[in-house]
Amino acid sequence: MRDVWEIEKIKEVLPQRYPFLFIDKVLEVTPQERKVICVKNVTINDYFFQGHFPANPIMPGVIIIEAMAQAAIISFSVVKPDIAREKPDYYLGKIEAKFYHSIKPGDQLIIHAEGEKFLSEGGVVKVCAKVEGKIAATGRIIFGVKPRK
Amino acid sequence: MEGKVEEKEVDLEKIKGEIRKIVMEIAELSEEELKDEADFTNELDIDSMQVLEIVTVIEKKYKVAIPEDKIPTCRSVQAIAEVMQELLEKK
Fold this sequence. Notes:
The complex is a heterodimer of chains A (149) and B (91).
Chain A: H1 7-13, E1 25-30, E2 35-41, H2 61-79, H3 81-85, E3 89-99, E4 108-119, E5 122-131, E6 134-146
Antiparallel strand pairs in A: 1-2, 2-4, 3-6, 4-5, 5-6
Chain B: H1 2-27, H2 40-44, H3 48-62, H4 77-90
Helix pairs in contact in B: 1-3, 1-4
C-alpha cells in the first residue's frame, strides 16, 4: 500500500512554513530504496509570482531548488526517522541543478527524491522535478543536519 | 607469501590514486596541495559536507557502502584508502 502524506504530516517533518513551504503532499514513500515522490501545486497565488514576473509568471529556479531540497529532507526523514523526530536544523551544503523548461501557474510539480547517502549529520540526494511527465529540473543536493540548540 | 603482500600494496596505491583524484576535484586542490596524509579539516580546509560528497562518490565508484561509524576516520586520502581496502577485501 502506498504511504501518502497529507500536509499535517509534512509539517511535522519540514520546519518551513508559509510562504516558504513548497511541498503540498507526499505521494509515495519507499524507505528501503530511500525514495519519496512529492507534489507542489503551483498556483498564481504563490507569493513569488507577484514579482517573478508581473506580466510573465514563471516559478523562480531558486524556489524549484528549495522545493527539491524540501523533498530531500522528507527522504532523509523516512530513512532517519529518529533524527527527524528531534526536529533538527537542515542546512544546504552544495547544489548541482539543471533546468529544462519553465514552470507556470497551474502546473503540478512532481518531485522525485532519492537518497544516495544518508548519515546522521547529513545527506546526498538526487532529485528530479517533472511536470506532466516531462523533466523540468534535475539536481543533486548535499545538506547537513544539526541538532537544534 | 611475499607476492601476496606486494599485491595488497599495489591495490592500496591504486585506490589511493583514485581517491586522490576524487578529493582533488571536489575540494578543488592541486596534486601538490593534496598530500596523502594531510588532514582534511586541519590542513586542507575540507568541510564535513565535502567529506560527505567525497564518500558518496567513492561509494558509487566502488559499489560499496562505507558504514557510518567509519566516516569519522575518513580524514585523509590515506585513511579513506585504508577503509576502502578493508571493505573491498571483505566484498
